[in-house]
């Protein structure tokens, strides 16, 4: 996370460019011995090269799904394919190409960060022992932990632990990264750095599945999104398609006296769902209306029409629908409900 | 490449089948040898009881080494206290005890009683004997006085065996059969296997119906005619023998010299015991004393204060003027005044052995345990004294200093005492 | 490291067509298992808690030796459990006496801690999931963990033996060895026999290691696995004292532990020693298989 933030949005791979998915599950189900169904018949499809936001409140089955993807938990039924190989049957073959951060970082508390990385590297039968040191240093450098590499893990702050977890996932070049709640415990700066790292990796062609219960943190980097709720995969697809399902809304702020005129003019423009909020302290009112990108008038046309109708426009804003809006629409409940 | 999806359930079942198989395999591995060992003994020619007994008595003593398990179920009070100490002959009174035996078939032998992290050894080279207790690091050396030794040497090449004996099947079996035809019937039971060797079984059943001894079964090796196992059955338990001494493994080969010699270890305490040789007259009267028992106790001259009532299996030995309290206190003078009854006692063999165990303490108890406590544990108060009742032997200690013992019920002893 | 270091072009459209970064097919490097074993041993033997345990065990012969040295001219000299009374005469016995005193409880306690922690410790720290996704095969990881626990058990026994030998030789000197049978063997033979005792005690702990490993796969709470392992050893010793259970005594985990005394008899019985080791092998096979079945099928949710 030494590089600076880039403003550019991540590139979206063409849907037709992928011949097979990086992650694919078929009717994946996990019923625990307690009888609780944590994951119920989900068909996950993560295209190669995608940054897949795996979203859902805590307890919605994200982590159990991730554990099944990595062969830690055996599915009750259904199949998993990682990079085209069945898991857990071919886990030994495919997992070296997969970096993972599962449910927070975990290391031996009495070993230093560097020693912990060296241990994980030693466990990997497919790495070259001669380059072990180089790999560990590169990974530490990449997450900005070089200075603290010799401190015991137990003395690390939450953010440093998270960074070490990322360093472990990046110990070697990966085709797929599975990052479960990578921003947990990070301050806003750290969160930005993680987002940047994800973009950087994606630009290099790595497929990233990143899970979070905080929509806003990930929304900006995702090319694809899957939304979990109560063990079901409620929705998945390219992010733009998901949010396009719901219309953007235009918000016009006008003095209270002109509110009725604004409503009338917007209706005249054939916009739907025109409503006016109540007046606020500065004496203005916000009038809402739904706009459709393809057929409706452009925002500048709306402004012009309002001005022509002598409606004083204090402010005008187009609000794109957020994933949270989509989620609330799908589930009828707030995102953090299960917290 | 494994392309067939493995359903988790069958995978789990297959995995747990492994420990299940492991349990069965391990169980079988430990259970199988004993089962195989009880293989058939077909092909052994049949022998007549008389012939068998003669063979045993005439057989050359064999050089051998082996492990002996001695199991006593005498119905005595729990002696678990005794087990706490190291290897000690008292443990022979109850439960199972393991001994190791080495003999060159002639005069030299070593018998070791094994305890947990301890050992009680008895070594004899023919003219002298040593016992060594690892718990006390104490050696007891038995030897004839120099004059006696010279006399014994002059008399015969086979001098008397000193008394430091631990029971072995070979000795016990031979002694039992020697007396077999006296007041008893002898028959041959089905052949068996002992310590992996084919063995004939001789059954000695006392004709008397009042004795506690039901029968004695001696298993005799079919090749060397060495007794391999002796079982003494009490008359009131037909399920398990009251006393069983048998080899669990045996090799007929001369043991190494180092095993049969004894050198007092540095630092050990040594106690010298001089064994008196009977006077010339006694030796002359008995061709074969005292390496074996006299043919009939009645033939032996009884020491003063010892009387024997009844004959054969019903014999009751009575010793008078025994200071029990002093004996229990380990008073040497009391020990010295104890009449030499060891070789004169004439009950069944098991009873004789038991008696040896008790009275053997007259040589100076190797028992660390509080002897008085042991005495109290073993005996029960009766009118006029205390009595010990086991399934093979009864002992009655009267307050007037008389001690009666025999392979008969306590009531019989009391009747004799009262007579 | 930057994206430029990777082989794939940064053009997203090409991501699928061109081999992605790290798409080199993973190959096993030679010596991978040895590397894994070294890493595990470094972890087990480098851990401060384990070192403290070893030092604690090593203190037993040291303290015992010093106490016996100070008491040797008093009225208390020559008393005590088997072997202890012999130490002042021959320092070699300090090794045997220390093992005799440690075998019933201290040694099982130490080994229970190490083996109970093997898997459960990783599970409770959360590191187990990261080891498994590295990936390392579960059977392989279990085997390496078992090896680590066995090496620790050996280190525990050796700590007692080596310190016992050094302290015993320094305080009391060594010489010809008087056996339990009363025979005396030359020093070289004596050292061999004591080495045999040490080896037998070490091998006698293998069954307990397997039991601990099994418990360790059952839970994410290491202290639970440790306690259960120690309890097994203690319960086994208690059952061994009950004459009513004589039939099962030979199969008990602890029944043959003191058969190391066989090494100190005039003719050590190979049968007795083999029987003791066979029972340990039985426990190792059964509990090793149980641990394997459990660990290779269990969901890792820690």
Automatic annotation (TrEMBL), chain B:
It comes from the Bacteria. Coiled coil: none annotated. Residues 1-31 form the signal peptide. The keyword Lipoprotein applies. The keyword Transferase does not apply. Residues 150-169 are annotated as: Disordered. InterPro entries: LolA/LolB/LppX, Sporulation_related. Keywords: Lipoprotein, Signal. This is Outer membrane lipoprotein-sorting protein.
UniProtKB/TrEMBL annotation, chain C:
The keyword Cell inner membrane does not apply. It holds the Pfam family ABC2_membrane_4. Residues 1-21 are annotated as: Disordered. The chain crosses the membrane at residues 51-71, 91-114, 147-174, 194-214, 221-239, 272-293. It comes from the Bacteria. Keywords: Membrane, Transmembrane, Transmembrane helix. This is ABC-2 type transport system permease protein. The keyword Transmembrane helix applies. It comes from Cellulomonas iranensis.
């Amino acid at each position: 996370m030494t590089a600076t933030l880039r403003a550019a949005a991540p590139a979206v791979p063409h849907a037709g460019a992928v011949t097979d998915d990086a992650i694919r599950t078929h009717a994946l189900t996990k019923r625990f011995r307690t009888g609780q169904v944590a994951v119920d018949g989900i068909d996950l499809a993560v295209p190669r090269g995608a940054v897949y936001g795996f979203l859902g409140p805590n307890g919605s089955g994200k982590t159990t799904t991730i554990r099944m993807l990595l062969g830690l938990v055996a599915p009750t039924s259904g199949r998993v394919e990682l990079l085209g190989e069945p898991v857990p049957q071919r886990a030994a073959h495919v997992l070296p190409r997969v970096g993972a951060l599962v449910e927070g970082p975990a290391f031996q508390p009495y070993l230093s960060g560097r020693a912990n990385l060296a241990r994980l590297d030693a466990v990997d039968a497919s790495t070259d022992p001669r380059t072990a040191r180089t790999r560990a240093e590169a990974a530490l450098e990449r997450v900005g932990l070089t200075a603290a590499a010799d401190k015991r893990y137990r003395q690390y702050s939450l953010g440093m632990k998270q960074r070490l977890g990322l360093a472990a996932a990046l110990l070697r070049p990966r085709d797929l990264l599975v990052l479960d709640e990578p921003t947990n415990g990070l301050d806003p700066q750290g969160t930005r750095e993680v987002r940047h790292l994800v973009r950087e990796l994606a630009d290099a062609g790595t497929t990233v599945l990143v899970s979070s219960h905080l929509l806003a943190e990930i929304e900006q980097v995702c090319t694809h999104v899957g939304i979990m709720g109560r063990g079901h995969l409620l929705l998945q697809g390219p992010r733009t398609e998901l949010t396009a399902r719901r219309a953007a809304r235009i918000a016009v702020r006008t003095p209270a006296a002109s509110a009725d005129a604004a409503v009338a003019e917007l209706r005249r423009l054939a916009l739907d769902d025109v409503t006016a909020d109540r007046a606020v302290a500065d004496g203005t009112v916000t009038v809402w209306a739904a706009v459709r990108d393809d057929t409706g008038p452009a925002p500048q046309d709306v402004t012009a029409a309002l001005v022509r109708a002598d409606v004083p426009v204090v402010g005008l804003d187009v609000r794109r629908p957020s994933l949270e809006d989509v989620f609330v629409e799908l589930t009828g409940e707030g995102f953090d409900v299960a917290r | 490449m494994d392309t067939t999806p493995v359903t988790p359930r069958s995978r789990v079942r297959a995995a747990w089948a492994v420990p299940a198989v492991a349990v069965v395999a391990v169980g079988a591995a430990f259970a199988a040898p004993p089962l195989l060992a009880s293989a058939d003994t077909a092909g052994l020619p049949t022998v007549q009881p008389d012939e068998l007994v003669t063979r045993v008595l005439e057989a050359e003593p064999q050089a051998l080494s082996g492990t002996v398990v001695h199991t006593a179920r005498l119905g005595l009070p729990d002696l678990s206290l005794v087990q706490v100490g190291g290897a000690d002959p008292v443990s022979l009174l109850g439960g199972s005890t393991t001994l190791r035996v080495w003999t060159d078939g002639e005069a030299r032998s070593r018998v070791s009683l094994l305890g947990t992290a301890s050992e009680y050894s008895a070594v004899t080279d023919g003219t002298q004997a040593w016992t060594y207790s690892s718990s006390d690091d104490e050696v007891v050396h038995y030897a004839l006085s120099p004059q006696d030794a010279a006399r014994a040497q002059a008399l015969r090449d086979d001098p008397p065996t000193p008394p430091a004996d631990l029971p072995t099947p070979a000795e016990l079996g031979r002694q039992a059969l020697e007396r077999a035809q006296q007041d008893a019937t002898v028959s041959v039971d089905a052949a068996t296997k002992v310590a992996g060797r084919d063995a004939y079984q001789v059954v000695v059943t006392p004709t008397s119906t009042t004795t506690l001894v039901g029968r004695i079964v001696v298993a005799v090796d079919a090749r060397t005619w060495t007794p391999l196992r002796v079982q003494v059955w009490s008359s009131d338990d037909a399920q398990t023998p009251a006393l069983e001494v048998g080899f669990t493994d045996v090799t007929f080969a001369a043991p190494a010299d180092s095993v049969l010699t004894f050198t007092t270890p540095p630092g050990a305490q040594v106690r010298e015991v001089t064994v008196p040789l009977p006077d010339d007259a006694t030796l002359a009267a008995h061709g074969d004393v005292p390496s074996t028992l006299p043919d009939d106790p009645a033939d032996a001259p009884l020491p003063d204060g010892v009387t024997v009532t009844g004959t054969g299996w019903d014999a009751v030995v009575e010793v008078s003027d025994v200071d029990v309290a002093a004996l229990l206190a380990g008073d040497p003078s009391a020990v010295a005044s104890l009449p030499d009854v060891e070789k004169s006692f004439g009950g069944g063999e098991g009873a004789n052995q038991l008696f040896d165990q008790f009275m053997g303490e007259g040589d100076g108890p190797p028992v660390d345990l509080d002897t008085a406590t042991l005495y109290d544990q073993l005996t029960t108060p009766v009118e006029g004294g205390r009595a010990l009742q086991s399934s093979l032997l009864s002992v009655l200690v009267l307050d007037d200093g008389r001690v009666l013992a025999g392979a008969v019920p306590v009531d019989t002893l009391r009747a004799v005492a009262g007579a | 490291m930057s994206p430029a270091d990777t082989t794939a072009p940064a053009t997203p459209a090409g991501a699928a067509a061109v081999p992605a970064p790290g798409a080199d097919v993973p190959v096993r490097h030679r010596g991978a298992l040895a590397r894994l074993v070294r890493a595990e041993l470094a972890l087990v033997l480098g851990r401060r808690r384990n070192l403290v345990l070893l030092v604690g065990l090593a203190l037993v012969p040291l303290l015992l030796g010093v106490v016996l040295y100070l008491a040797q001219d008093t009225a208390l000299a020559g008393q005590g459990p088997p072997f202890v009374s012999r130490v002042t005469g021959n320092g070699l016995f300090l090794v045997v006496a220390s093992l005799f005193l440690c075998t019933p409880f201290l040694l099982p306690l130490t080994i229970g801690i190490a083996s109970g922690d093997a898997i459960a410790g990783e599970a409770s720290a959360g590191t187990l999931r990261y080891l498994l996704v590295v990936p390392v095969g579960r059977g392989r990881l279990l085997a390496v963990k078992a090896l680590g626990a066995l090496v620790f058990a050996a280190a525990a026994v050796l700590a007692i033996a080596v310190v016992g030998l050094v302290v015993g030789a320094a305080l009391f000197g060594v010489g010809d060895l008087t056996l339990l049978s009363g025979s005396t063997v030359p020093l070289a033979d004596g050292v061999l026999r004591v080495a045999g005792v040490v080896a037998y005690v070490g091998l006698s702990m293998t069954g307990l290691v397997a039991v601990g490993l099994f418990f360790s796969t059952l839970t994410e709470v290491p202290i639970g696995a440790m306690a259960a392992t120690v309890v097994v050893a203690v319960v086994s010793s208690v059952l061994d004292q009950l004459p009513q259970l004589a039939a099962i005594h030979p199969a008990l985990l602890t029944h043959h532990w003191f058969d190391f005394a066989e090494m100190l008899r005039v003719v050590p019985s190979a049968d007795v020693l083999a029987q003791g080791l066979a029972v340990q092998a039985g426990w190792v096979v059964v509990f090793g298989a149980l641990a394997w079945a459990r660990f290779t099928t269990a969901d890792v949710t820690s």
